[in-house]
Design brief:
It contains nine helices and seven strands. The protein has helices spanning 8-12, 22-27, 29-41, 58-66, 79-91, 104-111, 141-150, 164-175, 198-206, and strands at residues 48-52, 71-76, 97-101, 117-123, 151-161, 180-183, 211-217.
């Protein structure tokens, strides 16, 4: 088990602590400190949008190309993929594109103030198929509470996935919330310049079904106390096919 950091109480005094549980502050303070260091060296100006799980940066590249006036940040857990994405942005001189190696649940509260993000994009997230692994999934009730807090009024959340019952669960959950309203994907700013992610391209090549949705944050308070939940749901694999990672 990760040892308790005796300096975690200093993090507790930071404004972002309101969005990160004490247990995380206690035992993952080194990760948070690295994100704070990255922020100091790489200030991300507003307006800004975030792609969680940016992989090799294929989609992030299109975001940065199409919205030069918007800071486009990719958050990725694998450092090797961060390097690939960063190199793509650098080759095109896209100074509004950024990539950070971090957990999005920590990075978003540390890097941004509440109510400031233009959009959050989640494309083909890891489904963590088994019920006992459900707690590892990105998209749960707590994630959407955080997304609501950090999106500005009128900001968008975009999801694409080829795990159909994962999509259905998220769709049902978001439909139960009055603080988000469903919108057409084409109404999301910059959607006309989006490029295909690696996984979406594979789905199209292999003729695998996938779903997508977009919601807009309404200027109302969070109303997450609903009977629908995203936790502890077992996901079926359907006709999901694995593709090895590519350079």
């Amino acid at each position: 088990m990760t040892p308790l950091n005796p300096q975690w109480t200093e993090l507790k005094q930071q404004s972002f602590a309101a969005y990160i549980p004490d247990e995380v502050l206690k035992y993952r303070s080194d990760e948070i400190a690295r994100i704070m260091e990255w922020k100091a060296a790489n200030p991300v100006s507003l307006p800004a949008g975030v792609e969680i799980g940016s992989n090799r940066g294929c989609f992030l590249l299109g975001l940065a190309r199409g919205q030069r006036e918007v800071s486009c940040l990719g958050i990725e857990l694998k450092s090797s993929l961060c390097r690939i994405a960063s190199n793509k942005l650098a080759r095109e001189g896209l100074t509004n594109g950024h990539v950070i190696h971090a957990d999005a649940r920590l990075a978003i509260p540390v890097l941004f103030e509440p109510g400031t993000l233009e959009a959050i994009y989640v494309l083909f997230p890891d489904p963590w198929w088994k019920k006992r692994h459900a707690r590892r999934r990105l998209l749960d009730d707590g994630f959407f509470e955080m997304a609501h807090a950090f999106l500005k009024p009128g900001g968008h959340f975009v999801l694409k996935t080829d795990v159909l019952d994962y999509f259905d669960a998220v769709d049902e959950y978001l439909s139960s919330l009055s603080c988000f309203e469903r919108v057409e994907m084409s109404s999301v700013p910059g959607s006309d310049s989006w490029t295909l992610s690696t996984r979406e391209r594979h789905c199209l090549e292999d003729v695998l079904p996938y779903r997508q949705l977009a919601v807009r944050k309404r200027d109302v308070a969070w109303d997450g106390n609903v009977p629908v939940t995203l936790t502890e749901k077992k996901l079926e694999k359907h006709n999901y096919r694995y593709h090895p990672e590519e350079k």
